[in-house]
């Protein structure tokens, strides 16, 4: 949620404008500069600053974000009415280093029902799975997508977690046989639920429950990596084995090219709201049931790779190379931790941070007796920098994460840290102009114009949270090296 905006949007000086006149040659040199294997937070941030997103894709993403925030706020209200505390007090803000727009950081606790929190974990799994599929799989292998459905539905306040966990255990037990007999490896499993009334599900469910009974139907999305494409006969044999081993109905959805079909919300947020809005009691029950379920589970070779990735202090990141989206491994090892002496100094500094803030606040109050009863003034405490995102404009820009952000600090430390934020903003502006992005105020004006046109347009975007975005679908279609084949 946007709470403020500073007035001083950085403009390049005449000297800087001349320096940043990006020609085709200099832009090509910039792309070549990033064609390297030594990616870290700095190089990824620089490469992605100024990344442009087309009009329709940016509008779709913005509408999705707004709906996420709306649904999250409403579901948080319902959960808190049921006695579950999902909000927290926060003094953390994020400031765009290009436009200087200020937003409050997330005020929600880690809760899988809330879309704003669930999508963070989904994004990490999707990036890892996309990278593994493209770079780590055996050449010529095939990804098959299966959906296993629990035989019956579970009524609200029933044993939902046990039903889902039982299916997950069966999938894990079937994995060794699938590997031995078919030469295939289960690499990912996700759990998903549909929420309907008994009346909406039809006569089969109406025989057991009254029409107004709310029911949940668990199913598992299973991704299987085959070392070589299976013939239709072998696939039919694999399907029959899965049905026998899991004791459920299993659907063969064929090869897939987009991992969005297996990295989805556990429950579509729209199913929890609307005409059949979840009650506080049902939301509390659902929160407790989902808390017991491992909804996103890497398996097999992919699980081993994820473990090795974490131990090596690497993570998967998206970068812009020559205007195209690429996935790379980014080194997240802190520079200081590479030297034990410096790491020890950092730990000692962290331990005395609170004492330093207290002294700073006391000195500011000039020895006033109230200082003993006053909390330390935490001003402009820099926690880190986010990856460049297109929250305000179509051009990506990083944000600095700050505790107690103020442009009028009262402490000496607060003033020094504000100066550091200003220096960071100046450096990011250089990257912004190097990428060919316009002046920040022009980018903001163009974004406002697009939003206005979208509101006035008679057509609306149909947002489906559990389907790939338009931009992703288009990108996958054009990517001839994407794994798998047709999408289900």
TrEMBL record:
Which stretches does the entry tag as region Disordered? Answer: 1-24, 335-354, 461-488
Superkingdom to which the source organism belongs: Bacteria
Query: Compositional bias (Polar residues) spans?
Result: 461-471
Task: Please report the name of this protein according to its UniProt entry.
Answer: Replication protein
Question: What organism is the protein native to?
Answer: Pseudovibrio denitrificans
């Amino acid at each position: 949620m946007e709470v403020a905006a500073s007035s001083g949007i950085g403009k390049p000086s005449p000297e800087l404008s001349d320096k940043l006149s990006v020609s085709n040659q200099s832009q090509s040199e910039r792309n070549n500069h990033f064609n390297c294997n030594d990616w870290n937070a700095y190089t990824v941030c620089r490469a992605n600053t100024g990344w442009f997103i087309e009009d329709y894709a940016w509008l779709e993403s913005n509408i999705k974000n707004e709906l996420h925030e709306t649904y999250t706020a409403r579901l948080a209200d319902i959960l808190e009415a049921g006695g579950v505390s999902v909000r927290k007090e926060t003094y953390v803000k994020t400031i765009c280093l290009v436009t200087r727009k200020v937003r409050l950081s997330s005020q929600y606790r880690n809760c899988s029902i809330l879309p704003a929190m669930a999508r963070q974990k989904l994004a990490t799994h999707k990036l890892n799975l996309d990278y593994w599929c493209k770079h780590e799989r055996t050449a010529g292998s095939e990804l098959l997508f299966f959906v296993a459905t629990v035989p019956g539905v579970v009524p609200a306040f029933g044993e939902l977690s046990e039903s889902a966990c039982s299916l997950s255990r069966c999938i894990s037990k079937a994995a060794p046989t699938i590997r031995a007999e078919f030469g295939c490896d289960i690499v990912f499993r996700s759990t998903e639920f549909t929420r309907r009334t008994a009346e909406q599900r039809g006569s089969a469910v109406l025989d057991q429950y009254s029409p107004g009974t709310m029911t949940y139907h668990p199913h598992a999305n299973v991704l299987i990596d085959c070392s070589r494409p299976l013939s239709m006969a072998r696939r039919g044999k694999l399907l029959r084995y899965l049905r026998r081993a899991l004791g459920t109905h299993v659907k063969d959805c064929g090869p897939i090219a987009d991992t969005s079909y297996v990295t989805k919300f556990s429950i579509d947020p729209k199913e929890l709201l609307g005409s059949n809005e979840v009650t506080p009691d049902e939301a509390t029950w659902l929160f407790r049931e989902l808390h017991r379920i491992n909804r996103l589970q890497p398996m097999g070779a992919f699980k081993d790779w994820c473990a090795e990735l974490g131990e090596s202090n690497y993570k998967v990141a998206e970068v812009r190379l020559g205007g195209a989206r690429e996935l790379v491994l980014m080194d997240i090892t802190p520079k200081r931790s590479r030297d034990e002496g410096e790491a020890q100094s950092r730990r000692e500094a962290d331990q005395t941070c609170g004492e330093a803030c207290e002294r700073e606040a006391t000195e500011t109050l000039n020895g006033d007796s109230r200082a003993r009863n006053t909390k330390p003034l935490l001003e402009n405490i820099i926690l880190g920098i986010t990856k460049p995102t297109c929250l305000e404009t179509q051009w990506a820009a990083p944000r600095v994460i700050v505790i107690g952000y103020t442009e009028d600090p009262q402490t000496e430390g607060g003033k020094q840290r504000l100066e550091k934020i200003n220096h960071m903003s100046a450096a990011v502006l250089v990257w912004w102009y190097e990428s060919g992005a316009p002046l920040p105020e022009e980018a903001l004006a163009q974004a406002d114009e697009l939003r206005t046109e979208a509101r006035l347009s008679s057509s609306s975007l149909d947002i489906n949270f559990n389907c790939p975005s338009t931009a992703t679908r288009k990108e996958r279609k054009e990517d001839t090296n994407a794994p798998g084949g047709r999408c289900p």
